[in-house]
Amino acid sequence: MSWIHSVLFLSLTLRWCLTGESSPEVTDDGAPMEKTEQEALYSAIQGFVGDSWNGSDLYPDPCGWTPIQGVSCDLYGDLWYVTDLTLGLVHENSLSCATSLKIKPQLFKLKHLKSLTFFNCFTSPITIPKEDWINLASNLESLEFRSNPGLIGELPETIGSLTKLKSLVVLENGFNGKFPTSLCNLTRLKRLVLAGNSFTGTIPDCFNGFKDLLILDMSRNSFSGTLPSSIGEMVSLLKLDLSNNHLEGKLPQEIGFLKNLTLLDLRNNRISGGLFENVVKIRSLTDLVLSGNPMGSDDMMGIEWENMGNLVILDLSKMGLRGEIPLGLTSLKRLRFLGLNDNNLTGTVPSKELETLPCLGALYINGNNLSGELEFSRKFYEKMGTRFKASKNPNLCQHVVSEAQQYVVGLRSCMMEKTGGSMMEKTGGSLVIKQTWSNLKKGSMMEQP
């Protein structure tokens, strides 16, 4: 024990002698843990890992020389208190949750708790208590429920009382019901994740106070209705993911106010009304994914794509888009993935211009009404491999660069006669180029679903 710890120990001993207080057990770090805090910790953990667990025997000094995996402490005054608690097999030596568990009220007596995480802990059906959350409101900054399929029912409205929360993660659980409107009180949040549950109903129009929110992920639920206009007031937002829901209607014009947004993922909803110029005004975007929304007969030519020079991923597939492939896309020098498949695009493919994109590694133009001749080089096809698709364009044909180039794209050859050594064979009245390149490598930067 160092001289500093010795002085602390002597001062605490003197205080206990003068006041008559009982002396808590002293750790090797020279500070004791309040007895009621220790008992609350043991009881709370026992509820999750099973009655056979005896913390007082296994971990007599949980904030000192016998720490519990997933438990962190800090000094308040002269005593240790639990500040972080993680339950579930995060690490190999973490405490695993029992099949039959219960949330004991002692959990909510850990009054200095700043972070509480449940990871793959609830596997059997259980509802979490609605009361007692207010007891953690003075300090709790992070609350996470990750991969708990047994957590069912509604997310308690009382979680909205945790007004000091900076991170609320409710990821891949069994929660259902509507978005708790009390969450609108959590204006200090920097991260709000409700993805992978069964939430229903509309998204409330209450985000005007979320000035510090960086991540909003409500994907993979059953939210419906239109997007609220207050989304545009989350001025610090970096990531907005509302994919795989039942959202509909037009995108609010206010979405163009998100000047710091880098990811906008709205795929697989029912959003309509065309490609709004307000989205294109978000020049900070690196990932724009709008696929699977019935945008209708919108024409891509009217969009100033050259203003979105930061784009890395652009997925506009399955949207019913019409018109030609705009040359403005060829100015996106950072673009790695371009998905235009399964639309109603017409006209020729700007092959030579698209080939100049230095980072492009995946191009999908299949399932359209494109026409003319593909004029990509052999080097381009070798680079793309299976990440290039142009089939199901009845009026589009493949230009054969040389006899050695034989790569399946599901297109007829533009050459209407058989050339010596080209190994083209006639199938169903059209010539199909067969893949025989041995140097083509399989792999996918972003495979098309």
Any chance you could write out the topology, listing elements then pairs?
Layout: H1 3-19, H2 35-49, H3 55-58, E1 71-76, E2 79-87, E3 115-119, E4 142-154, E5 167-178, E6 191-193, E7 198-202, E8 215-217, E9 222-225, E10 239-241, E11 246-249, E12 263-265, E13 270-271, H4 277-280, E14 287-289, E15 313-315, E16 322-323, E17 337-339, E18 344-345, H5 351-355, E19 362-364, E20 371-374, H6 378-384, E21 388-389, E22 395-398, E23 412-413, E24 425-427, E25 430-432
Parallel strand pairs: 2-3, 3-4, 4-5, 5-6, 5-7, 6-8, 7-9, 8-10, 9-11, 10-12, 11-13, 12-14, 14-15, 15-17, 16-18, 17-19, 19-21, 20-22, 22-23
Antiparallel strand pairs: 1-2, 24-25
